[in-house]
Every structure is written in C-alpha cells, then in structure tokens.
Amino acid sequence: MVRAMQAEARAGRQLPFAVEYDGEFVGQLTVNNITRGSGQFASIGYWIDQDVAGRGLMTRSVAMVIDHCFFALKLHRIEIAIRPENAASLRVVEKLEIAEYGFAPRFLHIDGDWRDHRLFAITKEECPLGLVHRLSQLSQE
User: How many H helices and E strands in the chain?
Assistant: First the structure.
C-alpha cells in the first residue's frame, strides 16, 4: 500500500499525509483524484485514531492540507465525501464551514457494500486567506 501511494504521489495524482500527536502516528489524510487542466480539483479523505479523536487534530489537519492544495498546488476546488452516519467526520466539515452540495447514493464500496455519501466542497474563492486562518477566526468568536 505504501509503495502504491508513493507511486501515485510521484505521478502527481495523490498526496498522503500522516497525522502525528505527541510523536505518535494517529491518522492519515490523503489528497486523491488530483485533476489538472481546466478542473484543478481534488478529493480528500481522512481518518484518526479514536483515542485522540475530538481534540481538533483532524479539523486542523484538514485545514492545513486544503491550504496546501490551494496555495502550493494551486488547486481551485477540494471535495470531501462523508458517510451520513459518520458524525465525527461531519463535524470536521461543519467546524470548517465547508458547504454541502449533494448526496451520492451507493458512492463508494466500503466494508463489503456500496455506501451512500454526503458531498462537500470548497473553492479557493470561499477562503482567500486559507482555512487555517478561517479556523483561527472562528475559534476567537
């Protein structure tokens, strides 16, 4: 799996990121389906160890990676697909104020079946100063 991710990263189609807490690997965030040309978009997916969930680590990680996509990679749009029952992941997009734009029935094959997903997206124009900046502004309110 690591070799496949490295090959996809070298090809410019995917970027895997590790999430660490107190020097320990606790999660992963992956930018995938990177599309160039007239699209300039990608999707992201993420997970975090239950032992450290709820501390804002993934929210901050998603904000940082989206900023990297907008400012370093010059992408225009980032999409996130989340299973409707995944309250923790839904809370991440809620805290970052990423808008929901649709519902995809039987979108991804997970745990032996095709699973529905809620779809979220954000564009560079919606956060010109970045999501880390937006997150810091929201936490001051």
Answer: 4, 6
- pLDDT tens, residue by residue, 71-93: 999 999 999 999 999 999 999 99
- Domains in the chain: ranges and CATH: 2-140 (3.40.630.30)
Euclidean distance between CA atoms 22 and 44, whole angstroms:
24
Q: Which residue has the tokens 């805290």?
A: 95
Token couple for 7: 């090959």
More confident residue, 39 or 7: 39
Any bridge partners for residue 99, and if so which?
A: 121
Please, where are the H alpha helices in 15-130? 57-67, 87-95
